[in-house]
Design goal:
Elements (H helix, E strand, L loop, with lengths): L5 E5 L9 E5 L9 H11 L7 E5 L5 H8 L4 E6 L2 H13 L7 E5 L2 H6 L6 E6 L8 H11 L2 E12 L7 E2 L3 E9 L2 E8 L4
Parallel strand pairs: 3-4, 3-6, 4-5, 6-7
Antiparallel strand pairs: 1-2, 7-10, 8-9, 9-10
Length: 194
């Protein structure tokens, strides 16, 4: 599947482990490293199984495909790039995934969040462009609209020195941040006070 403008990236775990998907080359798409992906799913400790998973700023879709491989019920991939979403659809076809497990949407991620009903997802992975520093804004929308299920979790990938809030209203609570080189992962859960 690799051609001039694409490179292959490998799924690291689950039923699709070792299978490759294509990712556009260049600065627009920055696939999450295998080390960070493995750490992410180790920390989830099975929480992704049968989960409704949202991959915001999906890019290559690698995190969403990892989630499907590791047992997510379905994944909604959102990216504003038509080319990225077409690539995700082609990758899903090459992996022979059931159409009901892959929902791909061309839309700005913030606009997409503004129109969701409450409790839409169990796991939300957010990987915006690092320079945009959108983590706090996205958490605010997710909290305000209560998009996360009662047992849900939001994970923001960000530069290690980005400061994200410890709490959003009474809706989301930071439970841990892990640093891997220049990359940080911050984990938020739905607050018990909801």
């Amino acid at each position: 599947m690799s051609s001039h403008g694409y490179r292959s990236v490998i799924i690291t775990g689950g039923s699709l482990r070792g299978r490759a998907i294509s990712s556009p080359r260049g600065q627009d798409v920055r696939p999450t490293s295998s080390k960070v992906r493995q750490a992410f799913f180790n920390i989830l400790n099975g929480r992704q199984i049968n989960a409704r998973f949202l991959d915001l700023f999906a890019g290559s879709g690698l995190m969403g495909f990892e989630a499907i491989s590791r047992g997510a019920a379905n994944v909604t991939f959102v990216d504003k790039s038509t080319a990225q979403i077409k690539n995700i659809q082609a990758c899903a076809d090459s992996l022979s995934l059931d159409k009901s497990r892959v929902i791909s949407i061309v839309r700005d991620s913030l606009v997409f969040l503004e129109h969701l009903p409450s409790a839409s997802f169990d796991l939300i992975f957010v990987d915006p462009p690092y320079a945009a520093r959108l983590g706090s804004a996205i958490l605010g929308i997710i909290a305000q609209r209560e998009i996360l299920s009662a047992e849900g979790m939001v994970v923001i990938e960000h530069l290690k020195n980005d400061e994200l809030p410890n709490k959003i209203d009474d809706t989301l609570q930071l439970v841990q941040t892990r640093i891997y080189g220049q990359t940080g992962l911050s984990f938020y859960v739905a607050s018990l006070g909801r």
